[in-house]
Amino acid sequence: MKRIWVLVFVMLLFLWGCSEKPNITEPSNESTVETIPSVSETTVRVVEGDLGLLEPNAALEALGLRRYPLSGTDHYAVRPMGDGILLLSGSDETTLTYLRDARAPVSVTLTDILLSVDDASWTIGEKGIVYYDEIYNEMVELDDQFREVRRLPMPVDMGHAPAFSSDMEHAYYFDRKGKLRALDLESGISRLLADEKTGDPYIRTMHFGDSLLECVICVEGVSEYLMIDAATGTTLFRTSNALELDTSEDWYFVPWKEGHATELVFGERAGERSCFSPQIQSDAFPLASHRSVVCLSDTGDGCQLRLYDLTGSSSVSTITLPGSGILDLTMDDRLDWVWVLGEAQDGSQVLYGWDPSVVARGSQDPYVTPYYTVDFPDTAGLERIAQEAKALGDRFGVKVLVYRSAAETHPSGYMFEAEYLVSAYDLYLDLLEQQLERYPVSMMKKLGKSSGNGRLTISLVRTISGDGELGGLSATDGTQYWKAGDAYLTLAMGQNFVRSFHHELFHAIDTYVLAETKAYDFWDSMNPEGFSYDNDYVKNSFRDPEQYVTGEDRAFVDTYSMSFPKEDRARIMEYAVMEGQEEVFSSNTMQKKLKTLCRGIRSAFGLSNVSEALLWEQYLDAS
Fold first, then answer.
1. Rounded CA gap, 119 and 432, in Å?
2. What is the maximum span of the chain, computed from C-alpha positions, in angstroms?
3. Which residues contact 27 (CB under 8 A, 6 or more apart)?
């Protein structure tokens, strides 16, 4: 479903960019807003000491890097302003510090005001900043020396803080009745744009040169996000998913995430859509105004920054900053520099100015791909994935299916949704490989002998859904089943992928142990007196969540373990391969069950003479 709203929204951006903007006639619902006279003032101070002075370092400067040590450890944001850099610091109130070459830094503290990085109630203009003073309900404009240019009382009927345009000419706000208004800061005239009526709406941020308002309303405890045209008040898009847009005048990034796979959709509003897909997964910071992306990755002794140019040059610039982390970064269009607020190993803060052009070079690996969809997938990439899946399966004595081949294996009562994103397979094939390496290859081969095709088949899909009337779960992360004599294990990509792999694999292992040994003949005798399995998933959902799963007499991992004997054993196996589960296996009953499983597996798979402990035996005799 996440993919659907992204598709719709990107298409909306395209259509909105192509369409002719309507001529806005002089509105008939203007009004002069009621305000309260100003009574506050701002005090500016010159910063003393060596805050922000360049620390000469020829080695760093040869890499295009300049280092500016900072005093204090509470800076949290850096932004370009005019011909210098603005630093934000403070936890209960905001201190603004302006750094410029050859000029003493100046600072101002906004008492009882904390400016959030993404807050729309303050903005940086060409010559200073504008912010909202909630204490006095005023708009305050400061120049680049933090001297007050003007203070304007704001409407008394505002429901939340206003959003200011970067040209410092308009303020947008919802009044207490839910009406969205545009206030002309020069004339004091307020123009009605829209009427939401309910939901206690507020403006979250602004996009595309302040032409689009991102608003939030809360309906019956659920937040909804609206994109509203700032000129017409038309709601262009509404979704229950939080938007993570980064935009400039006509350029946008829309990140899409599912599980651990991440793609950035980007482009111009009226142009083609593309995806940013670096080979190495890392934290990505899109810089829409500069048509680029900075990716961060931990090197152990510092943080590596890689800047990807998306304007067509296919160049990548790389630098490694020493220290323990990156707090914030921004692009200065005036210098084409990246400013980075970092933290040194000793906890002190440092400001870096990085000129990426010094170390820029052409990229041999493509990092921009077309915008693939379910109807127009990356066929070449999926073919590569299929070949990698086959090679992985051959290595471990199993068969790995992807894309449509995986989805077509569904049994009666279940439907599989095919995954078509190559980036998802790049991640989850690696995860699958890591988990397969934890089992003896001989186990996988013996499991395959019980299957008609001679191998256990592992299918990777996007989602698994079932029909309750046919005995299936409405949604699940994995399932193990037999079809025409072949053994299948199907896994849905997502945050439970690793746990589901071990759980479902043990269902196959369990079947083999039952066929080869009598290890489980007395399984029920280990359960509490009078207990019986539900043998029904729906009935099991009404189990007492506390009975039998806590204390010294614990007999099950959780209530789901009480549905069927096979789920009891699979749950034990699932937790036995995880770290930090000593408490689960501390009771006598859980120890007996675990020992029974371990003995059965060793006997069935010919592992009795293996001296080292196997993966699932780490909690044997745990106290």
1. 41
2. 89
3. 191, 192
